[in-house]
């Protein structure tokens, strides 16, 4: 066999593997390297690990974890570990200098892990679990910049968390929770805190995994849904065909995106309305959506509505 034929076979094999993993070879590699998949984990002789499509599947907080990972700027939640920890662990959206983990010093010794971090593997669940395990043996003042892939830990979040524990994040207007009570930031931490607080977008939780965000002169609602995509799209289509895919006056369905295996519908909102004014409309839409999740064929009108909704989908992870 000639070199040209061998190269073609290798390219076909890589394309096949990428397709099996649900990854476009020309898209950014899910590992967070910034390279295209074909030049990173999809490269010849590269890492053969397959991306985990739903890294948080099986956890009661799956939808909230997706939201905190992708678009909630500042939030914390106390994690409930399956076994008694040496020290409690708080999950935060972003830590100082985008660190993966830290243990406060100055006698505080509170442990934090970051969710919005660069990952080196294709399983975010495993990387975050490694950061949690790191906090248990770290010394006060230690910082974990990037999760190491060269250790013996293979546990995932599903292995070390109480999978059924309630998961209700606390949403913050700033990142001052980075600091211990009465502590004053200095050096790089002070600069990072200042920049983070200046860039934060007002965000409020208006329902389970439903978040209102004000971005400049525009407001949005992003709602991470737990249903399988095909079932959810059918339900959304039924509502759309019936004129019920709305949050009421001042709202418009904008489309949806996929993140970590789940679908996230998005609505444009009246930016002059307060976040709490959307809580009741979200609850009412949720009830209509539950009723629309039925196992029956779509009508011709509903199929047309579904086709239109699918045309407004994108994938970010």
TrEMBL record:
InterPro entries: DUF5926, SEC_C_motif. Residues 1-25 are annotated as: Disordered. Residues 55-317 form the DUF5926 domain. It holds the Pfam family SEC-C. This is SEC-C motif-containing protein.
């Amino acid at each position: 066999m000639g070199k040209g034929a061998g190269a073609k076979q290798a390219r076909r094999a890589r394309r096949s593997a990428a397709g099996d993993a649900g990854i476009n070879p020309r898209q950014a590699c899910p590992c967070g390297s910034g390279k295209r998949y074909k030049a990173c984990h999809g490269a010849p002789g590269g890492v053969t690990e397959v991306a985990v499509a739903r890294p948080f599947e099986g956890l009661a907080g799956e939808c909230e974890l997706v939201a905190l990972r992708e678009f909630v700027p500042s939030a914390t939640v106390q994690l409930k570990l399956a076994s008694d920890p040496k020290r409690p662990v708080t999950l935060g959206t972003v830590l100082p200098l985008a660190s993966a983990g830290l243990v406060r010093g100055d006698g505080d010794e509170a442990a934090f892990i970051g969710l919005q971090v660069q990952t080196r593997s294709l399983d975010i669940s495993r990387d975050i679990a490694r950061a949690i395990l790191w906090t248990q043996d770290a010394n006060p003042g230690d910082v974990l910049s990037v999760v190491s892939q060269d250790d013996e830990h293979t546990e995932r979040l599903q292995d070390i968390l109480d999978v059924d524990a309630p998961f209700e994040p606390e949403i913050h207007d700033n990142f001052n929770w980075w600091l211990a009570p009465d502590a004053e930031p200095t050096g790089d931490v002070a600069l990072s805190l200042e920049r983070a607080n200046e860039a934060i977008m007002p965000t409020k939780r208006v329902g389970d995994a439903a978040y209102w965000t004000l971005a400049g002169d525009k407001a949005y609602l992003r709602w991470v849904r737990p249903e399988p995509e095909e079932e959810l799209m059918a339900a959304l289509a039924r509502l759309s065909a019936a004129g019920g895919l709305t949050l009421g006056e001042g709202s418009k369905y904008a489309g949806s995106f996929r993140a970590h295996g789940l679908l996230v519908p998005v609505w444009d909102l009246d930016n002059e309305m307060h976040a709490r004014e959307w809580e009741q409309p979200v609850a009412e839409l949720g009830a209509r959506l539950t009723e629309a999740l039925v196992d029956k064929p779509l009508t011709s009108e509903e199929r047309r509505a579904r086709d239109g909704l699918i045309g407004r989908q994108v994938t970010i992870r």
